[in-house]
């Protein structure tokens, strides 16, 4: 049994007074963060390698209104901690300009502040945030999944005009009883997942409908004059459509990963470098700026499909759930030729093309479904790696 941090997100509707107080807290959190960014912008490796960053006391002394703010006492400190993480990430990256900490804006779709000293009690069906901010009503369908005594922090977030209370719990996660299943998983473009059992899993058509909705809203935004009131309203509609698409994809991946973890004790997967795959496609397409040929158009469509399907999100969910619940998740090397090897005899079909969805083994004559054969090979290779202790 291991302690893990698990979050629960609860939507709520604040009163008008409470909404004004929350908006003030969002602004104060942005102010504290932007003070750090402003100091960071004076950084220079030669002349100013160690800028002086203001702490909470300095900011309150220089801005008296900050002392009277309804924001919880340690939320400003958490804003400074968030900046330090962004600054550390900036210096870890090779291409600095792409990851430079930027100013937080009131026009950002997501606004939030975090309190790491929560009240650990409930007032009936309401959770008290603080004396100044009041409480949040929790509906029956959103009842707390974990004991309130294990609460470690809460975050109030506004995303596209919807308010959320995000509760973070320290939970004892127990391993699940052993399962009998043992599968290999092949991730693909034509089919999202192909299992070694022969099952092929794709996103529901609802996801495609949401993607079309995003495209329509994006086209409408491109016809608006930037900065006009219609532009701002359309931008909010687009952000709402994006959020709905993202939430739907995440929900599907959570349900799918939960099912795979419940049914299988051993899972084998190929190691994918999504960033490299999409970057190479972009490099091919951006060269010379000439009109795309058919092959280039296909590569762009594949690049879009890879990013749209969210392979990395599913792999991350499977990884932490396997660790939590005592399942074995083994990654096969990305250079392992899973699609080209015959699962029956081991013959390698060197000239296999991407367009060939089925192929016949030249040695034993077995007809292979490309993706199912790859999943079987991934499962067997993962079992071999697990047995050899690699």
Summarize the structure.
Pfam families: Cas12f1-like_TNB, HTH_OrfB_IS605, OrfB_IS605. Helix content is 43%, strand content 20%.
Task: Report mean pLDDT, rounded to a whole number.
Answer: 88
Helical amount: 40-55%
> How large is the count of helical segments?
9
Q: Which radius of gyration do the C-alpha atoms yield? A: 25 Å
The low-pLDDT segments are 281-291
Distance between the amino and carboxyl termini: 25 Å
Count of separate structural domains: 2
State the total count of DSSP E strands. 13
Structural shape: globular
What class, by secondary structure content? alpha+beta
The largest sheet has its strands arranged as: 9-8-7-10-11
Largest sheet: 5 strands, mixed
SSE topology string: EHHHEEEEEEEEHHEHHHEEEH
What portion of residues belong to β-strands?
Answer: 15-25%
Domain Probable transposase IS891/IS1136/IS1341: 173-279
Keywords: DNA recombination, DNA-binding, Metal-binding, Transposition, Zinc
Domain Transposase putative helix-turn-helix: 1-35
Protein name: Transposase, IS605 OrfB family
